[in-house]
Structure formats: C-alpha cells, structure tokens
Amino acid sequence: MEFSYRIELKVRDYECDIQGVVNNSVYQNYLEHARHEYLLQSGVDFAELAQRGIHLVVVRAELDYKLPLQSGDQFWIGVNVRQASKVRFEFMQSIYRSSDNKLILNGKIIGTSLNERGRPFVPAELATLFTD
What's the pTM value of the predicted model, to 2 decimals? Predict the structure, then answer.
C-alpha cells in the first residue's frame, strides 16, 4: 500500500508489558503521534487549531493486531486520510516492523472536528488533505 506519510519510531522498554511485548494500549499512542506529525508536516498545526476553538476528536478506533513488537524493535507507521462523510474523516494507518516489513497492526481512526460551539464540521485546512 502507498502512504501519504511515513514515520519511523523505536520501541522503548517501558512500553512493554510483563510478557515482553508492546502493551496493546501503546499502539494507540503510536498512531496518534503519527497522525499529529502527518498533520504538522501537511501544514495543519493541531495546537493552533485548538487555540482557534477547532478541536479534532476521535469518535471511533478500529485496531487489528497482527504481530507484537518487542523492546528495541524499529518500526514505521504509514498514514492515509480520507473524508468519510460530510463531517467525518478516516485515518487509515498501518504499523510495520522495519527489520522485515512484517505487518504489525492495521488501524482505522475515525474523527471529526468540533467548532467553538461543539458542532461537527470539517475545516478547510483538513479538507485539502483528503484523498480517495
């Protein structure tokens, strides 16, 4: 699969559970970090939007775990985004172990933007990122 954005990261010891693998909840942190970096690289400043009263929120997260990562593993996350409806967007994200490009996780994160009155909408800054 081709991705609009790709980021490389490394598993840190404290992200692993007693079984020696990355705890399932940590993967959501990885995905969130990748989304924020993708937006920033695309000219969309998450913090600046919040200061303007525009809040990007997750409304649904679907994660399909395939293989575990372990301490010290290098990995990369691919990101694509598309408009899912008039007021929702989807980030399609995948995590791959760098050493062998094995698929670790597929994720679909559905979000929306809320204006200062708490109403959902898609700001122009995000609309320019959508691909089909």
Answer: 0.93
Identify the active-site residue in 17, 64, 73, 132: 17
C-beta neighbour count of 57 within 10 angstroms = 9
DSSP letter assigned to residue 88: -
- Model confidence pLDDT, tens digit, residues 52-73: 999 999 999 999 999 999 999 9
- The stretches in the chain having pLDDT less than 70 are 131-132
CB 82 within 8 A of CB 130: yes
Pick the CATH number of 5-127 from 2.40.30.10, 3.10.129.10, 3.40.50.10540, 3.40.50.720: 3.10.129.10
Close Cβ partners of 36 (under 8 Å, ≥ 6 residues apart): 46
Active site residue 64: no
**Dihedral sign of CA atoms 14, 19, 22, 25 in order:** negative
CB 93 within 8 A of CB 79: yes
